[in-house]
Amino acid sequence: MLKEVLVVEGKMDVAAVRKALEADCIVTGGFSLGKRTLADIEAAYKRRGIIILTDPDSAGERIRRFLAQRFPEAAHAFIPREEAMAAGDIGVEQASPESIRRALAKVRTCTMTPHEEFTSQDLIRAGLAGEADAASRRARLGAILGLGWANARTFCKRLNSYGVTREEFAAALSELEKADAVRDDGAAPDPFAGREGGSP
Predict the structure, then answer these.
(1) CB 113 within 8 A of CB 162
(2) Which residues have a Cβ under 8 Å from the Cβ of 75 and sit 6 or more positions away?
(3) Quick one: which of 22, 37, 64, 190 is 20 to 30 A from 71 by CA?
C-alpha cells in the first residue's frame, strides 16, 4: 500500500493505478477542483502526503501547476508521453501498470527555494534546446530522470526545482548517448521521433 495519496484527474486513471499497485486516490475531475475536492486533497497532504500524477498533456500540466502552488511540498510523478498514448488519447488511464510503477519509482519533490544549478546554456550544450531533435532528447532525458515531458524553459525549471544534481544529469545524458549509439547501429527507431514534445 502506497503511503502517500495519489492525485489523478479521472476515475479511469484510478482504475489504471489500481492495476499497478494498491493506493488511495483522489480524483480532481479535470480542472474543476471544487471546494470538497480541494479539502480532501489538503487533508491528505497534511496527514499522509500527496503525489500528483496528472496526464502528460497541457491540461494535466495546468492542473499540476495549480496544485503545486497550493501544496508546495507535494511530490510529483511523471509518466512519459509515449507511454501514456493509445488510440489517439493521452493520459494516465492509457499507461500500463509497468509505466505507472516506473513513474512512482522516480517521484520528485519540489524544493522550496530552487537552486539555479542549470541554465538554458546547459540545455543548448546538451542538445536539449535549439536543435531539430531537442524536443525528442528532452522527452527521453525526462523519462530517465523522472521529470516528464516539457518545453525547454519548463524542463530547465524542473531540473532546478526537483533537486537534480550535476552528477545525475551527466549520468542521464550518458545513458541517452549510449541509447543513441545503439539506435544508430541499426536498433529500433526512436519512439519519440515525430511526437510533439514542446518547443525546441
Answers:
(1) no
(2) 4, 49, 50, 51, 52, 107, 108, 109
(3) 22
Total-model pTM: 0.81
- End-to-end, the C-alpha distance of the chain in Å comes to 39
Give the DSSP letter string of 24-71.
Answer: -EEE-TTTT--HHHHHHHHHHHHHT-EEE---SSHHHHHHHHHHHHHS
For 112-122, how does the pLDDT look when each residue is reduced to its tens digit (9 = 90+)?
666 789 999 99
CATH for 1-110 is 3.40.1360.10
Q: What is the pLDDT of residues 146-173, one digit of tens each?
A: 999 899 999 999 999 988 999 999 999 9
**Tens digit of each residue's pLDDT (9 = 90 or more) over 21-62:** 999 999 999 888 899 999 999 999 999 999 999 999 999 999
Cell of 42: 489538503
Instruction: Give the β-pairing of 25-27 and 85-86.
Output: unpaired
- What distance in Å separates the CA atoms of residue 30 and residue 9, rounded to the nearest whole number? 5
Overall size of the chain counted in residues: 200
Residues of the chain with CATH 3.40.1360.10: 1-110
Cα-only R_g, the chain: 17
Neighbouring residues of 113: CB distance < 8 A, sequence distance ≥ 6? none
